Amino acid sequence: MTSEATITAFRRAEELVSRRRPLEALRTLEPVLDVDSDKPSVQLLLGRAYFFSSQLQRAENAFLRVLDFDPTDHYARLALGRTLQRQGRLAEARAQLRLAVTMHPDEPAYREALGEINTNIALRSS
């Protein structure tokens, strides 16, 4: 696959994920993964497609790969936190969301996600 074809496939997969068509995005990403599987942007998009298709363990693995490349990627921490939340692993989710908020404190969506986790944990413990 040429570099231009890889970029085109990646952009198409991004569009499909944004339109909530994750299974099509995963198919579109297959040739990209053959060439660029070690790029954080590819793993992040892969994780999002897995997340939206409810393949949560695969999403978790993709987000963890992104964090292996760059532990300071606050969006990957948010996505990992949301993935862990959907798996019912609230304490682990809270840890990731706390890190995301610490890294990017001006993002209201991060604070909102952390507040939601804290509320769920409080409700479970009462």
UniProtKB/TrEMBL annotation:
TPR repeats lie at residues 40-73. Keywords: TPR repeat. It comes from the Bacteria. SMART domains: TPR (SM00028). The keyword Lyase does not apply. The keyword Cytoplasm does not apply. This is Tetratricopeptide repeat protein.
